[in-house]
Amino acid sequence: MPVLVASDLDRTLIYSAAALALTMPDARAPRLLCVEVHEARPLSFMTETAAQLLTDLGDAALFMPTTTRTRKQYQRINLPGPPPKYAICANGGHLLVDGATDHDWHARVLARLADECAPLAEVQEHLAKTADPLWLRKQRVAEDLFAYLVVERELLPEEWVKELAAWAENRGWTVSLQGRKIYAVPKPLTKSAAVREVARRTGAELTLAAGDSLLDADLLLAADRGWRPGHGELADAAWAAPQITALPERGVLAGERILREFLRDCRGTRPA
Fold first, then answer.
1. What's the mean per-residue pLDDT of the chain?
2. Within the chain, what is the greatest distance between any pair of CA atoms?
3. What pLDDT sits at residue 2?
4. In degrees to the nearest 10, what's the CA dihedral of 147, 151, 154, 160?
5. DSSP state of 211
6. Measured on CA atoms in the order 4, 243, 116, 232, is the torsion positive or negative?
7. d(CA 45, CA 265)
8. Cβ distance 19 to 77 under 8 Å?
């Protein structure tokens, strides 16, 4: 029976230059591998050691990228190791099987959203009305499923985010602040639902997971064991659960540590 490893990508396994958190002297910094290029520029990285660990993991388990990225954004990433059989995009809105969208799964997601939360158009309208051009840089819709803003973080009022979260909560939506992006996501749109579906299809007897943001909390809770890095929304909130290990590492070295933990559990080599 396979082990299913469902991991968030950004700021969990892969990191932008701004998120690397390389605090050691330059001469001792780890060698990095670029795993994403966008508009001819390197965008995301992992350590070379992490790249080898991920390759090993692909041989030891069913590794499934589990991301809030759109399908187009996900397909820019070139991860080392065997191509994943399954991937989850748009926070669970799309399940990819051998790189192709599972349309039956997507239809089930759309039905749940229609039944259980306010429509996307209402959220878009509210964001457009309340966001201040002083700190707003972009407003985007992802896969016609959820919305996000790109902001100047240092100018963003904390109170505005709290007010948006309260407004969204009453309409069946959740808000997550990740770096320079504010996500507004329907509550029924979850990574965990898609992970459970893949576990059912594959007969996985053990599910492992990792993530750093509030949008990953349901993913971690759905796993048998999970890890969160020492940075991100979950770390800032001191979020904890019995089966979740809070790691001290921050930045790109946290990604390396997470992959080591995955491999230990897959191989059954965890110390007693």
1. 95
2. 55
3. 86
4. -40
5. -
6. negative
7. 24
8. no
H or E element in which residue 244 lies: strand 244-246
pLDDT at 206 over 50: yes
Rg (CA), the chain: 18
Listed in sequence order, the residues at least 6 apart from 197 whose beta carbon sits closer than 8 Å to its beta carbon are 95, 105
Strand partners, 209: 6, 226
Q: Give 213's Cβ-side CA count (13 Å radius).
A: 24
Contacts of 149 (CB under 8 A, 6+ apart): 127, 131, 136, 137, 138, 139, 140, 181, 182
Residue 241: how many CB atoms within 10 A of its CB?
Answer: 14
**What integer pLDDT is reported at residue 179 of this predicted model?**
83
pLDDT at position 270 is 52
Q: Are 186 and 113 in contact (CB under 8 A)?
A: yes
Res. 69: pLDDT tops 60:
yes
Q: What does the alpha-carbon distance between residue 252 and residue 12 come to, in Å, rounded to a whole number?
A: 8
198-210 burial: b if 16+ Cβ within 10 Å, else e: bbeebebebbbbb
The residue to which tokens 């080599």 are assigned: 269
Whole-model pTM: value is: 0.91
Per the structure block, which two tokens stand in for 41? 């520029």
CA atoms within 13 A on the CB side of 238: 0
The 10 Å CB-count burial string (b at 16+, else e) for 46-64 is bbebbbebbebbbeebbbb
pLDDT for position 269: 57
Structure-block tokens of residue 96: 């990819």
